[in-house]
Amino acid sequence: MIENLLYFTPQLLLATLALVLMLQTSFMRAARVSQSICMLGLIATVVATISLAPAQGVAVTSLIHIQPASNFFILLVLASALSTVLLQFKYGEGSREVQDEFYILTTLATLGACILVTAAHAATLLLGLELMSLSILAMLAYQRDRQSSLEGAIKFLILSGAATAFFLLGLAFLYATSGSLTFPALFQVAIPTAETQLFSKTGLFLLLIGLCFKLSLMPFHWWTPDVYQGAPVNSTLFLATVSKAAAFAILLRLLTIMPDQASSLLAAILGGVAILSMIGGNLLALQQQNLKRLFAYSAIAHMGYILVAAILAIRVNDKLALEGSSYYLLAYVLASIAIFSTLTLLSDKNSDCEYMDDIRGLFWRHPYLATVLILATLSMAGMPLTVGFIGKFYLLSVAVEHSAWWLISAMILGSVIGLFYYLRVIICLFNQTEEEARSFHRYRSVWLGLVTLCILVFGILPDQLGAQIAALFS
Amino acid sequence: MVALSAVIWWPIVAAILVWIFAKYSPELSRYATLISIVICGVLLALLPYQSASALWFSRFNIHFSLHLDGLAFLLILLTLLLTVLATLVSWQEIQNKLGFFHFNLLLTLAGINGVFLASDLFLFFFFWEAMLLPMTALIAIWGHENRRYAAIKFFIFTQASSLLMLIGIIGLSFLYKSQFGEFSFDFIELQALTLSQSQEMWLMLGFFIAFAVKLPSVPFHTWLPDAHTQAPTAGSVLLAGILLKTGAYGLIRLVLPLFPNASLEFAPVAATLGVISILYGALMAYSQSDFKRLVAYSSISHMGFILLAVFSWNQTALNGAIITIVAHGLSSAALFSMAGAMQFRLHSRELGDMGGLWQSAPKLGAVVLIFVAAAVGLPGLANFIGEFLTLMGSIQRFPLHTILAALGLIGSAVYGLHLFQSAFQGKERRDIKDLSFREIGFTGALILGLVVIGLYPNIILTLTHRPLEQLVQKHPESTSLLVGEIGAIHD
Q: Using an 8 Å Cβ cutoff, are A233 and A344 in contact?
């Protein structure tokens, strides 16, 4: 047991990091120092995660079960956290708020996400989810002087609270019928009668509603655009990547251990949710002038695409479906990091860079940043040369393999609608304007370049990564 | 492998170089672009026909495999020639962001070369999509007044249709896995598949729609007039000269060999679409008052001949299709470059603003007359051979369609002469500068090409003889076809 604790090192490191940061803040207030410590801690966690990857599933007490795939999701979470921390110092400089606590919150939210990814028990599930959500809430409201920031945060608080209530009620129902809180026993009905079956199914759906809310799948998406828009753009980055990746990882885990009797109904309902999200999300994004809202709706659509693979993984535990969803999630996270980081870099003291007009003609002023934005947007649109295309190829392959023609039709329709607004963003970058160029710090540009390089390399040479991801699920 | 793929990676390297050069001197960038295309041509000329393959994405058994044969060679050669033309026509027209312009031009070249060389369906699709991006940039940045609308429309039409092809490709690969135990995207291996009738039909339709949009065939043609009209001259040249031909190439290279039975079954529908395109394109061309739009609609008409020829599926008709591909590539590109030259002088593409231009620009008028005559199908010029062979080949299979298609020749004479008459004859309204030395140079070369092919089409047909012969043998009823028709025509 105790040697298995070794595999839990990433989470322990993050917890220690949070403590260290708290101590540091109470003795000496210096945002620069906090940032540096936070960066170092996160990098150490990345190293630990990579070097301590278990070859097969490892149980660390009954609360935590670490699978090879969990480490992959943890790495995604850490990459986004690193990006947020790296960009925050310069971004928050102009704000009246002190910046030190932002790093503590980021660390705590990351910890929550990492616990959520490895949860094997109702308690850890809830703990991870709430630790993540509450820390993100504070991050969203961090710039108190902006009205929209508070508005978005309150919206998130209320709706997130409601979703957690559903989630808890679902857990209670499931516990009532199964008598166990660990996975997968939680989902098995102890005494199968018509009534307990119904009870168990209800519990399951309430649980899924909670997760659908976190993934902002339609029709539980209402909060997404407002919160994205209101939040400081660097927190939006975190929300768009970390919470989505973690929630998706746990959804994938839950779906693969679903009992047989619930699975077909579950697939039908989630299929409806996916189709709605893919088409609805893209349609709503069409007319947006605000980039944050545009990418919020596009995130809804992307969660719909990725849910397709998850649905197909339900019954058959299909390897390709799991690989496909992981690859797609990676593509989504990379592109989101690149897009929101660029917007963060372009923001100034008083307002975020969030309107189409703010990036008009960017290519002629900042070819580097614009290229990052173009490649990331193309990746979102699933164009070849970028990782998004390989992700889309995986998803379509999975869907063709299972002959899920309805889902394929919705995916194609959604992608075509999506092209329209992605292209609008890209063409906007090439418009002619007369604005002066500003200079940016080099090391942040290096980080952006690294992310963009990943988008390109994984898109052009997918072999290595494809083999790695395939190994995760073998 | 390295040598063969140089046709693809060299333009990419050159694209980056000319972009850098443009920072120092625009002239340098222009000459460097020309030289790099010529180098690419030399590379191509040195390559023997060959195949090369390397594992690319092992999870799906996808290979980076290229195949060069006569057909690919011919089309790449045409692409290189027209890219040279595109560079020359933009010599004065493009002053703004010159480096980035040449960058996109050369990337388009790389993408198109990739499409013609790829023999793995995934790779084919990869290039098929990748070539769209720089092309869209050319339209969206250097195009005319309504460029953004045209660029988005072009992109979405081609993207949406190619997603259907992607589904078809994945479907083929999974069927291969179920029959042979592993994935394959190799297009020779995939021909070994046994498909049920409905599977073959559905998969074929996925491919067909993608290529019919690119060709384009009625009813998928609405992107073309906008894209061609709004694109800068170089963009129109590449679009009309090459991008449309990738659709024809896809039909010849992929649809017929992969889905022989479904193609045969579908042929009447495709031929009907072809004939409708021929007549509709001609009619619409006649009713245009915009020079470029007129030429754009005439392209739809000419592409109808290719569709009819391909689905007639015999050696004569396929020869006709190949000649039409090359001839239309040269003549429409030439007409678009003349349209560009006139727009540069007049700042208008409206035929109403022209008239009597012969007085001040007789050389320009003579050149346009020759290109119009080529488009009309005057014997002695290349297009005539293409249309003649197409009609001769298709009458064996679709007599009624062919008779109707022949009416298109009359239609093309009507719109062609209308174009020439309203631009160059009548009362003189404007004074324009005649052709410059540079313009005489490239139009002369184009005219020479059209005449040589028109008088001696074997120069092309010997190149494509073997690939087409193999294709004809894949016809499900191939034994019933006449062999050696190609000889009969040239005797």
A: yes
Contacts of B178 (CB under 8 A, 6+ apart): none
pLDDT at A316: 65
Give the tens place of pLDDT for each residue, B397-440.
899 999 999 888 888 999 999 888 888 888 887 778 888 888 89
Quote the CA–CA distance of B405 and B395 in Å, as a whole number: 10
How far apart CA B462 and CA B336 sit, in angstroms, is 29
Q: Is A435 exposed, middle or buried (0-12, 13-18, 19+ CB in 10 A)?
A: exposed
Let me know the angle formed at the C-alpha of A77 by A167 and A68, rounded to the nearest 5 degrees: 85
Query: Cβ–Cβ contacts within 10 Å for residue A191, how many?
Result: 10
Longest dimension (CA), chain B: 73
- Interaxial angle between packed helices A147-178 and A194-214, expressed in degrees from 0 to 180 and rounded to the nearest 10: 160
Instruction: Please report whether residue B60 resides in a domain.
Output: no
A393 contacts in B (CB within 8 Å)?
A: 122, 166, 170
Per the CB < 8 A criterion, the answer to whether B267 and B313 are in contact is yes
Chain B residues lying within 8 Å of A466, measured CB to CB? 57-60
Q: Rounded CA gap, A98 and A65, in Å?
A: 38
The residue ranges of every structural domain in chain A are 262-474
Q: Find the residue in A nearest to B164 (Cα).
A: A412
- pLDDT at A107 > cutoff 90: yes
Is residue B212 included in any domain, yes or no? yes
Whether residue B383 has pLDDT greater than 80: yes
* Domain contains B45: no
Rounded to an integer, the average pLDDT of A112-124 is: 91
A471 interfacial to chain B (CB closer than 8 Å): no
| Residues near B80 by beta carbon (within 8 Å), at least 6 away in sequence | B37, B40, B41, B44, B109
Report yes or no on B75 lying in a domain.
no
Distances (CA, A) of B231 to B109, B137, B150, B160, B238: 16, 10, 8, 21, 10
What token pair was written down for A458? 């994984």
Q: Domain range for residue B428? A: 144-490
